[in-house]
Fold this sequence. Notes:
The complex is a heterodimer of chains A (150) and B (1507).
Chain A: E1 9-12, H1 16-28, E2 35-38, H2 41-48, E3 65-69, H3 77-86, E4 95-99, H4 106-113, E5 117-120, H5 125-142
Parallel strand pairs in A: 1-2, 1-3, 3-4, 4-5
Helix pairs in contact in A: 1-5, 2-3, 3-4
Chain B: H1 2-80, H2 82-93, H3 98-115, E1 119-123, E2 129-132, H4 142-154, E3 158-159, E4 163-165, E5 170-180, E6 186-194, H5 200-205, E7 215-222, E8 225-228, E9 243-245, H6 252-257, E10 262-267, E11 273-280, E12 287-293, H7 294-358, E13 362-367, E14 372-375, H8 377-383, H9 387-390, H10 395-398, E15 400-403, H11 413-420, E16 424-425, E17 430-433, E18 439-450, E19 456-465, H12 467-489, E20 494-497, E21 503-506, H13 508-514, H14 534-548, E22 550-559, E23 565-576, E24 582-591, H15 593-610, E25 618-624, E26 629-633, H16 636-639, H17 651-657, H18 660-675, E27 680-687, E28 693-704, E29 710-719, H19 721-739, E30 743-748, E31 753-756, H20 758-764, H21 783-800, E32 802-810, E33 816-827, E34 833-842, H22 844-866, E35 870-875, E36 880-883, H23 885-891, H24 908-919, E37 924-932, E38 938-949, E39 955-964, H25 966-987, H26 990-1005, E40 1009-1015, E41 1021-1026, H27 1028-1033, E42 1042-1043, H28 1052-1059, E43 1063-1065, E44 1082-1089, E45 1092-1100, H29 1108-1151, E46 1155-1160, E47 1165-1168, H30 1170-1176, H31 1180-1183, H32 1188-1193, H33 1203-1210, ...
Parallel strand pairs in B: 52-54
Antiparallel strand pairs in B: 1-2, 1-6, 3-5, 4-5, 5-6, 7-8, 7-12, 8-9, 10-11, 11-12, 13-14, 13-19, 15-17, 16-18, 17-18, 18-19, 20-21, 20-24, 22-23, 23-24, 25-26, 25-29, 27-28, 28-29, 30-31, 30-34, 32-33, 33-34, 35-36, 35-39, 37-38, 38-39, 40-41, 40-45, 41-42, 43-44, 44-45, 46-47, 46-50, 48-49, ...
Helix pairs in contact in B: 1-7, 2-3, 15-19, 25-26, 25-29, 26-29, 34-35, 35-39, 36-38, 38-39
Amino acid sequence: MNQFDAVEILIVEDNPNDAELTILALKEQNLANKIYVVEDGEAALDFIFCRGQFAERKPCSAMKVIFLDLKLPKVSGLEVLKELKSNEKTRKLPVVIVTSSREDPDIQTAYDLGANSYVVKPVQFDEFRQAMSNAGLFWLLINQPPKGNF
Amino acid sequence: MRDSTEEKQRNSFFKKQYLLIYAAVFSVLVVVAGYLYYSTEVKAVKKEKNDELHAITKLKSGQITQWIKERKADAAVISGSPFFIDAIEQWLNNRNTLRIKEDIIDRFIPLKENFGYEDILIASPKGDLLLSLDPEITGFDTATSMKIIEAVKKQEITLTDFYFCSTHNKVHLDIIAPVVSENDKPITVLVLRIDPNDYLYPLILSWPAPSDSAETLIVRRDNESVLFLNELRHRKNTALLLRIPLTEKAVPAVQAVTGTEGIIEGKDYRGVDVLADIQPVPGTPWFMIAKVDSREIFSQLYYRTTVTVLFSALLLILVGTGVAWRYRSLQRDIYKDLFLKEKELRETHEEFRTTLYSIGDAVITTDIKGNVRNINSIAEQLTGWKEPDARGTPLQEIFSIINEETRESVEDPVQRVLREGLIIGLANHTLLISKEGKEIPIADSGSPIRNEKGEIIGVVLVFQDQTYERAAQKMLKESEQRFRLLYEQSPAPYQSLDEEGNILDVNNAWLETLGYKRSEVIGKWFGDFLASDGPALFRERFSQFKSLGEVHGVEFEMKRKDGNTIIVSFEGGIGCNKKGDFLQTHCVFTNITERKRTEDALRKSEERFRIAGKAAYDLLYEWDVTSDSLEWFGDIDSLLGYGKGEISRDINAWLSLIHEEDRGILENAVEIHRTSTEPIKYEYRIRHKDGTYKYWIDHGLPLFDDKGRPSKWVGVCTDVTERKLAEETSKMLSSGVEQSTEGMAIASLEGNLIFVNKAWCRMHGYKSSDELIGKNLAISHTQEQLENEVKPFNEKVMELGAYSGEVGHITEDGRPFLTFMTTTLLKDKQGNPYALAGTANDITERKQAEKIFRDLSLKQEAILASVPDIIMEVDTNKVYTWANQAGKDFFGEDVIGKEASYFFEGEQKTYDTVQRLFGGSEDVIYVESWQRRKNGEKRLLAWWCKALKDENGNVTGAISTARDITERKRDEEKLFVHNKIAHIFLSIPDDEIFNEVLKVVLEAMQSPFGVFGYIDEDGALVVPTMTRQIWDKCQVPDKTFVFPRDKWGHSSWPKAIREKRVIYSNEPSIHIPQGHVGIQRQISLPIFLKEKVIGLFQVANKEKDYTQADIQLLQEIAERIAPVLDSRLKREQAEEAVKRTAKEWETTFDSTKELFMLLDKDYKIIRANKATSEFLGMPFEKIIGNYCFTLMHGTNEPPPECPLARLWKSRSHEDSELFIKEHNIWASVSVDPIFNKQGELVQIVHIIEDITGRKKTDEEIRKLNEELEQRVMERTAQLEAANKELESFSYSVSHDLRAPLRAIAGFSEILLRKYSAMLDDEGKRICSIISGNTQKMGQLIDEILALSRLGRTEMYLSSIDMKSMAKEVYNELTNPEMQKRIDIQLGDLPKANGDPVLLKQVWVNLISNSLKFTSHRKRGVISVTSRKDEDQAVYCVKDNGAGFNMKYKDKLFGVFQRLHSEKEFPGTGVGLAIVQRIVRRHGGEVWAEGEVNQGAEFCFSLPKRKG
């Protein structure tokens, strides 16, 4: 059994601080044990499509939600999103956009591309935790993914 | 037409039906679909909710299980830790070893802190408390002790249920873990005490999605009730306190503990309907319930339902509107059709009515049942019924008719028409019984009215009053009878023969004269009544008579019944029918027998007197019997007037000269005397060459031959003519004269009677002539007679030789009698008079007869006098000789002796007609002529004139009957005038109507001058016509056709119009303008319609005075004209308007600078305006009829870019701008088709506008615009670049500054939370300072961004109610508690025009500022006011807060500028900067006033925006 076989939540975040805070927030909801973090868009795509360094990931499924930062090295968040949403296999995978600012002009683009929701990272940890756990809970627990997905 | 309308209606009715059905079906579909959609939605929503609830219960129960697992794991780790067991064992072994206890506690504290336990305790396996972190805990309750013992027994980690801890007064949960020694011996028990409020309850309560009513709860069964284990959302203090008995089955909690699992619906503890999901929590007696209020679900559903219902309603409304619209358009079509039909019908009806009511005959129309529908005014007069009463009544009631003679009812003509379906005329002699019972003779006819299918739908009955005609007929008949009577009674015998000469009729005189009875005469041939050769003569002459037509003085000898004959003289003529065919003869005869005989006698006696003195000589002859030669001795030739030897010697020649009466005897004698020896002695007449006969006496003696037979006769002929005549005379004297019935006498010149005949004696009463012969004729006269009669008579005789006349005589006994004497002066051969011979007829009897006749005439005269008709007699000089009383009444008592022409009203025609009668060419004539009555009145008389003729057929005069027919004529005339006017209105074009009508009126009114005008819309009198002479003669300076009301003056016609009455005068008018034609007499008569004057008739200068009859006639004409004139005027006004519009259009057409052309459907130019002509440089003649494209482009068809080319397809307005290279111009070209009613294209309006100039300008503007645009674009690009930069800057700020901040905040928070146990108070304080500052930093960043955003975001302007906005902001910023402290005063704020979001921000900032700065006041007063300037509105927020020093007022609005310390009033110093930004962006200003500790006022202005 591989370390990322049972991953249910993928966090794509280049800022390790933010990544950690996210995990912490999710952990508070007892969801932390199924989280995996990648730091750039390329890695994210590799992980999702089980290729490159993640070629071994099995089963290549069982992912429930992706927290995607927009500002990413290599492949940007929007590009990742675009690829996900244009692929029939991953189209229905919930993607939560995580962004620093409500003013981010890319939010609209993200929605247009099919992002399922977005979360602004607040400065205050409490709020952040709340926001993350809400989003995470919803996509993990409440949302019933369509059958046959992955 | 009706059918087609009905069909249409039916069609549209079906259409309507279908429409309704479609609409209904569609509506039902919409409702059903809506309902289905709704149910699906309900299911979907429920399903969604169910899934959600289920997911949540599953999640929660999973979480709880997980948590329990973790907690147990914690307990296992701790209790299983060798270190811990070791420590416990050591501590248990030596309880007093504080170090070990401290050690354990030290170990427990981080555990408790890190894992969030309430308390960690250690108990003995028997349930006694050994150790507690919380020093307050001194023991376990029994339930826990029991659990501990149980756990020890089972040797497993157990979770206790929730229980209420009386020590802490709160709910706890314990994990009980037995601590087992190495040899599996329970040594102690570890109790981890958990406060469910720390984690478990929040976990249970937390709901992943926002919801108003949703909650999760756990329960368990507790005996016969269910116990709620946690704090509830909707009720407080429930944990372990709220119980609901199991009997309340509707409560989901109850159902949960009674075994139900999954989704249910029920009522929760509040009694509210909820949807709940129940899951048992594995490994516990708990049940997890997630529930949400049905209301919430349904509120979601309610929204969808509302949308569905609204959508359905919208659809229904659309359908309804569609149907209504369609229905309306159908209805409109129908009504339009109906309207058109109605209009047509009305027009037809009006036309029919006008015709009907202007017809001179009476007209009644009925329907198929014979009930009256219409009845015109003439019919109303005749029947006595009024149309409104008559309508619908059966015809028989109104039109009751009887036969004039039999007086039996005549069949209703309508029934007959309906039965026979033909046009029928009524029987003659029909009398109409009017409503009043009056009998009116009528002639009529009925005709069926058929509809378009030819079915009879009614009858029209036309009839005329025949009173006058019948009267005329009757009069004619009476006249005929009168004349017949005259003939019957006439003393002159009258007879009438048919074509064959058979007797048709004779009068009494005839029968008396001839002694026959009527029956013996009628039908017999007239010739049979003639004597001797009369029949042959009649046969010969009768045909001549018939061809000539008249006979005068033809004499016949007629046989009386008694065998005597009389000689009669006929006068007569023939009667013909109108065609001129012979009908019968009309002859009278005079008995001239007496006269004839007298004449004969007289002639004979006269001859006798001439015999004397004639010498006689003899002729000798020798007749040779054998040779029949006759040898004359003596000059027989000269004797008989022949030339010498002219008379043959043959005996036959002699015989031929003998009078035919005597010849037979002599021829016989010639034969006798060949043998006879008797001496010849004959007397015979022989013809002289001049035709006279000589009386010869022939004496002869025979010379015998040897046989003794006569061989020769020798004789002598003596001419005894004179002697014979003398003999005859004497014979007359002796017998003829003697026998004559006339008295005859001869007297000497002295008067001594020489001879008198018997008749004379008898006449004078003497017995024999002896008593008179030798006496003087004076004996037969009185002295008076001698003096007065005889003497002048005889003088005449002496003078003239003969004379006739009446002379009075007396008889012997002195009785006087009157004779008619003819006396001749007798003269001898020398011519000396020697005697007087006279004949006398006693005419006393004749005189008496005459008297009788005169008496008879008088009687007739009396009869005639009583006849209402005028009867007049004239002689040949047309002088009235007799008149009956009616005639005298009419012409005056002195009429007799006056010439008829004196009474004529100058009509040559009448004279000519009458002349025919006197010329003898006509026997009877009819003539109507105007006659002057004795009072000078002019009356029209109808004359029947019959010529009076004497026996010779010479006209001696005429007898005439006359009747005054003036009224009748006038009526006829009126009718004629009305008909004529009706005709004029129906057939004459408008512009001639007035003229024509005036002509008719003037003719009827016998007036030379007249005016016929109408009142126009402005009330002015318009006179389209007046007598030509007036116009020409009129010398008024301003001649006009239109007389405006204010210039009418005061003459008669304005008076008539103003006072609405007839003004007439027979006096010369004085109110006439200078130069006006003189008005001698006049009638001014306003034409009324419904009491409104619509026109005027004025007639003037009739030769005689105007009478009431004239006015009445004019009035009647006016009444007739009024409705027609009115409708004509209305039409005229409409036409006038159309004409005016046309004229205006035409003027416009010509005065525009655009080229206007009107094309026909083939694009040929019909009309063009001046501009066109000028543009093309062509006269109109060359333009009209050409194609516009030929003229414009020189092509044979419209160029493709021309809108005309497109019009053909589109059939609607087209326009283009195009360059006409042929003329080097830019043109805006438009075409508009004109369709006729049938929708065919008939004309095209073609407009071309030269827009070259505009094009140029446009081009320049376009270039300028382009440049400008270019510059704007460049500028915009620069701005955009700047903006982009700013944006990316802001973004960087927000993104990049936040990330580190977040890290600082996040980790310092974690430090504070997780590692607080390792931090001392200072460490904790520093951490919280870091945390606080990060928070502030985040706020600053946000506000800077907001500020910078203000410059960038677009503004969406709308009208804002500032008052409600301020109020709303205030309410949002405060809670009720705060409001108690604040005194807010909100004035009336004017509405503003601005971006609502931004302005709200202004209010938020200002009001929150005020709230903030008054927070230290016990009572905060905030007032929001405003004032309105000319072009701006000012809004102010004032408070009684901390205020500020006006010294720093400029700094107030700077970014991050603060006038108070953070400690005093928190804030970033950006709020007012934002306010200023926003207000300035709106074009306003912001300012502030204040004083430290006295409060501040912040004002901002907003400019009023126009539009």
